Amino acid sequence: MKFLKLLWPEKFKHRLFAAVLIFILVPVFFIQIYNYQLIQRSVSQEFSEKAAKQMGVVQTTFISAIQKLFLYYIYLERDPATHLALTEPAAVDESERTALLWSANRPASQDLPSFINVTLADRFGHIYESNEQMISNKDYKTFLKHPGFKGLSADGDSYRWVSGDKLSLFGVLTDNTGQQYGFLRIDFAYSSWFSDISDDLLLLQNYALLDKDKRPLSPSESLRSMNVSLVQAMIDDMGSQPVIQRTDERHSAILTASSIYNFDWYIVSSLPLSTYLGNMKEVRNQNIATFLLFSLICVAITFIIANAVSRPLALLQRNMAGSAAKELQTRVPERLFSGEMRDLALTYNQMMEDIQGLVHKLKLEERQKEALHYQMLMVQMNPHFLLNTLNTIKWNALDKNDSDTADICIALGKLLETSLNSDLELIYLKQEIELLRAYMYIQNFRFDGLVEVEFHLQEGTEHALIPKLSSQPLVENALKHAFPDLNGEARIIVRGYAEHQTLILEIEDNGIGLTKAGETARKDSRKGIGLDNVRHRLMLLFRKDGQLQLTDSGNGTIARISIPLLVSNPYQSEGD
């Protein structure tokens, strides 16, 4: 007991320090080390199981991709359009051969992604590539001299797989009579495929493909970070197991290997634990350093509490509690403090000023983001109807060869001048109506003047402000969906009027109505951007006060834009 009394300090602040160190800091330190090791083992085991399941998914998907390549080979061999383009090139116009070979009307099951390139060759010196979609006589002999075609014939082996930096399927095309009429090569950029499929999976693993000799089929960055000897040992021990797994301690990664059925290939994946857990040793050292720093802070706080006065702390607490309610305007009177407490008051006051500055900066940044989003939406609208207009000009020039083309160009110039002016967001309503007239002038050339347009503008609303090009998508939507078959009775009525403090712009048509138009739109695979673009722009400019509504009128559809009434009468050169 006397020995313990000699070791135990007599002063209160020293006793408080010893109590915190022995009964709090030391036990917490060992508990933290134990919990860290427990979490490390648990998380590693969890990621190991997920990596094995994900490898099974990748293996199945990879085999399906290879099978799809072979089915595509069978499809091309039996496709009448392919047979016609390759056997009778002289019978098909050169500009139409590519359309026959790479027709967009093929079933969706035969659509191939961009990392698969298909090359066809006929017996007349023509080569066709799917990605380029062009016809060329260049390198025809070089293409057929590839070793992949060696030994292939209609009577013997008709196809062969060749591996390398790309996985290629070489084959000959034969008709129903057994006559050879073309050559086929399908290149599968599996490295790009692995990268693409990894983006859709839960775990970001690195994948590599190995041949039967356990050598990589192509140089891979992921293999450089793997323990190659460990990978080879895994494949040797695989046996009948479809998936085998090891932990690479040297690189802090989980390795998974799987064989490819019917091929002497292996897929190897590496899940770097550092991606999810960081470097374990570094994290552990950082935790220890953080804990030591925390311990020092605790000791310092212990002495401050033992020697501090409760009144300054209570005053500081009250100011901090009321800072949010007073919008960070509270300040601590520094003259009431001294020493460390005065420094704390200075720090608190500076912190309040910094937070106020950050809040103001965040508000400015948020508004800038909204402005940028609005500009992006406007840029999205710029080329939306340009292609149709240019096609109209082309058709008119080719069919009539008259001066009407100049009128179309004038109308198009008005639209382009407004759309490309990104500095101007709001224009007068009468200017919007003029742009709409120009647009309908162009469209009536396209529809042979079968669409009748009426404009009704309430007096006094000519100089009301409205987002530019907000009515054109609504009219375009009516032309596209309301009148699938023009019969000479198509009519669009444009109304602009004020209602209390709201400007209303209505586009009414006598088309088929919303229900039938919705059924027709569902058959169209391409989703339009016009209506969504207008809605987003109204929301960004006017918040909840800007709305776009589509309603049935009984004899068609009404598209209604409602925004706050903002009248900006121009200055007059004379008079009032």
Explain what this protein looks like in three dimensions.
Helix content is 50%, strand content 18%. The strands form 4 sheets. The protein has a 6-stranded antiparallel β-sheet. Strands 12-14-15-17-16 form a 5-stranded mixed β-sheet, with helices on one face. It is built from 18 helices and 17 strands. Helix 2 runs antiparallel to helix 10, helix 3 packs antiparallel against helix 4 (94-101) and helix 14 crosses helix 15 (429-446).
Strand content: 15-25%
Specify the CATH homologous superfamily of the domain at 382-564.
Histidine kinase-like ATPase, C-terminal domain
C-alpha end-to-end distance: 104 Å
How much is the radius of gyration in Å? Answer: 37 Å
CATH overall fold name of the domain at 382-564: Heat Shock Protein 90
Helix proportion of residues, in percent?
40-55%
- What would you say the CATH architecture of the domain at 382-564 is? 2-Layer Sandwich
* Separate helix tally: 18
Strand order of the largest sheet: 3-2-1-6-5-4
The total strand number stands at 17
- Mass-distribution shape: flat
Q: Quick check: average pLDDT?
A: 76
Question: CATH class of the domain at 382-564, anyone?
Answer: Alpha Beta
Oligomer: single chain
> Unreliable segments (pLDDT under 50, ≥5 consecutive)?
none
Query: What structural class is derived from the secondary structure elements?
Result: alpha+beta
How can the largest sheet be summarized?
Answer: 6 strands, antiparallel
